[in-house]
Description:
This protein folds into two domains: 3-193, Class I glutamine amidotransferase (GATase) domain (Rossmann fold), CATH 3.40.50.880; 217-319, Arc Repressor Mutant, subunit A, CATH 1.10.10.60. Helices cover 44% and strands 13% of the residues. It contains twelve helices and ten strands. The radius of gyration is 22 Å and the shape is elongated. Mean pLDDT is 91; it is low at 201-206.
Amino acid sequence: MSKVQSIYFLLLPDTLLLDVAGPADAFLFANRYQKDVRFELKFISPLSSIECSVGLKLGPLQPLPDHLDENDILVLPGLVGGTEVYARSEAQLAIAWLSANMRERQKLMCICSGALLAAYAGLLRGHKATTHHNHCEDLASIDSSIKVEENRIFVEDGHICTSAGVTAGIDLALHLVNELAGPLAASAVARNLVVYMRRSGNDPQLSPWLKYRNHLHPVVHKMQDAMVKDPAHPWNLNELAKIACSSSRHATRVFKLHTEVSIQTYLTSLRLSLASKFLANTDWSIERIAEASGFGSARQFRRIWNMHFPAPPSASQFR
């Protein structure tokens, strides 16, 4: 029997339509690819209907519930405009309801400037958070205790999840599908939506091929794409710097800044993952696996492997 996961979308006038439609479709598509969790969407508002950012009228909407159940997910999409829109009467009703009803037992998902609504309700106090780059200063000015992280697709801090503008809400929805329904379902949804599957820096090390992509720097993505395409290649800084159209020093700096790991650490994680697949699916010798995975020698491979896994490669679970 499937577990029912309720997801509430709180809608106000001038809600950005893509902030609603993108994540909503991601959750609904997840129902197609697995049966363990059934996502049920509910659209709530202080008003019976609203006009969204593109002029489309949405309704009828359910009223704000008296309470939220444990483990419910609440989604706050962004609104068109700046901080002034949160002074409207319907926004003030939503802020009061949020302050009275949101607790740590529920997951809060803020998309784009939806983080501002959460901040006005005091829900982001002391938390790490992000928002659309046009609103980072607004978010910091609402509550100085919020640790605003710029240039991030999304940030997860405990039960609080916040994302950058518009399409980043889909990335965050995929992240939650991965947490709740598993990576296979999330990957299937991503393929269906024709979007990249990226993980945040807080995720467990399930796949180094997808980790460390939770940033917006196109040059760093280019370097990562090159290494992912051929991790066994004897990459050096000069080659990667050429891809980045910069000096090796600058390439090293921006890579570490935006991924929070060094180029060598990233490349090593790819090579270890590749080696684990060879161990699981071939009868190759350790020497051949080391060479095919990009390690200089079997001795180097064993040394690095033993730094990351408790058992040697010859006796590992992958063998």
